[in-house]
Amino acid sequence: MSMAVKNNIRWVGKIDWELRKFHGDEYSTHKGSSYNSYLIKEEKVALIDTVWGPFAKEYVENLKKEIDLDQIDYVIACHSENDHSGALPELMRHIPDVPIYCTKNGAKILKGLYHRDWNFQLVKTGDKLSLGTKELIFVEAPMLHWPDSMFTYLTGDEVLFSNDAFGQHLASEFMFNDRVDQAELYQECIKYYANILTPFSPMVIRKIKEVLSFNLPLDMICTSHGIIWRDNPAQIIEKYLEWADNYQENQISILYDTMWDSTRVMAEEIAAGIRETDDQVTVKLHNLAKTDKNDVITEVFKSKAILLGSSTINNGILVSVAALLEEMKGLKFKNKKAGAFGSYGWSGEAVKLLLAKLADAGFEAMDEGLRVIWAPDEEGARSCREYGKTFVGSL
Ligand code: FEO
To answer: What is the pLDDT of residue 316?
Structure first.
């Protein structure tokens, strides 16, 4: 299967309809994904990126239907991660001498992953490669999201091949942004940003400003996952600038795990207290043991503040809450407030631990959390509502 993109550019990637977990178990892909590879047939022929290893044979067989592999002049590896480079060993078996254009870090990583001494041609920002009347211009984009990442721009067609940036995990046969459900597309884009790019936000802003300063006309952004931006491609760039700038909505997320429902009851009473005080703020509750963690991260990303709840167990906190804290620490969220709550039976350390771990993860944690012994009675429920009011009042 291949699809026309524009003029002499064809999509020759793989739509992975079945994918539900990506990066091992790290990222949920409820809507599948795609590994986008592009074949540019000008006077010279360039192939941009490949697909994930399990689809290598299928990919190369399909590619043969598009072109005699010997006619490929250049392979461009914008990013070495396995989902884009996995088919390289199979491809290069057929065309071992064809040069692979990538960054210095790209070559290092590809050698580390595949242990082959391919014909690497190292490129830096501003380097150009002629395809005849059109040329490719390379732009290094380190840490968006790996040290090797780069963008490739095709003059004449005015297409930016952005690799992971501006992409999203969405399997669709409709290919272009104007042909898919807009709400679904937005959700997958913000989830992708929240879960993958949040820690690199300062670099996102710097890199976008640098690319914009080149004043290159832009007709399309061809990403390496999901759909291609052809209808107002600037819209996703504007969104990235917004998301990278300590993004938050008027939302508070209450995230908890509970053993015998007492902490859940506390969560709901706290939510009621918040709503009594502020009927404009969106309050969302998620039981961490029952909610997809990447969806939770997306809600944290949107929130101006979170409240984290856990029962005390073995002098500590519940494992789903600990896992979320670990994840949030790595993502380096900024400019978000946090509170903590939980029920306990005897020792009751969880709340204090939650506040310390929230501060350690970069949240502006409240001085005090809220503990309730055993199940909240009327007085306990009232104290939860008061905590919710105090919390929202402090924002
Ligand atoms: Fe889609 Fe960073 O690989």
So the answer is: 97
Instruction: State how far the Cα of 115 lies from the Cα of 262, in Å rounded to an integer.
Output: 55
Q: Which residues are registered as beta bridge partners of 54?
A: none
Please tell me the residue having the least CA distance from ligand 1 atom 1. 164
Q: How many CB atoms lie within 10 A of CB 54?
A: 13
The one catalytic residue among 145, 157, 269, 344: 145
Distances from the Cα of 136 to the Cα of 43, 101, 108, 122, 125, angstroms = 13, 11, 22, 14, 11
325 CA → ligand 1 middle, Å: 24
- CA-wise closest residue to 104 among 155, 147, 68: 147
Distance CA 350, CA 356 (A): 10
Indicate the DSSP class of residue 200.
G
pLDDT tens for 347-375 read: 999 999 999 999 999 999 999 999 999 99
Query: Ligand 1 centre and the CA of 109: distance in Å?
Result: 13
Ligand 1, CB cutoff 6 Å, lining residues: 79, 81, 83-84, 145-146, 164, 224-225
81 is catalytic: yes
Taking CA atoms only, the protein residue closest to ligand 1 atom 2 is 81
Measured CA to CA, the distance from residue 358 to residue 230 in angstroms comes to: 41
Predicted structure pTM score = 0.96
Task: Check residue 126 and give its pLDDT.
Answer: 96
CB proximity list for 189: less than 8 A, separation 6 or greater: 166, 168, 236, 239
Q: What are phi and psi of 393, to 5 degrees?
A: -65, -25
Q: Looking at ligand 1, which residue's alpha carbon is closest to its atom 3? A: 81
Dihedral (Cα; 161, 165, 167, 168), 10-degree rounding: 160
Task: Clarify whether 79 is annotated catalytic.
Answer: yes
Active site residue 114: no
Which atom belonging to ligand 1 lies closest to the Cα atom of 225?
1
CA torsion 33-294-211-183 (nearest 10°) is 70
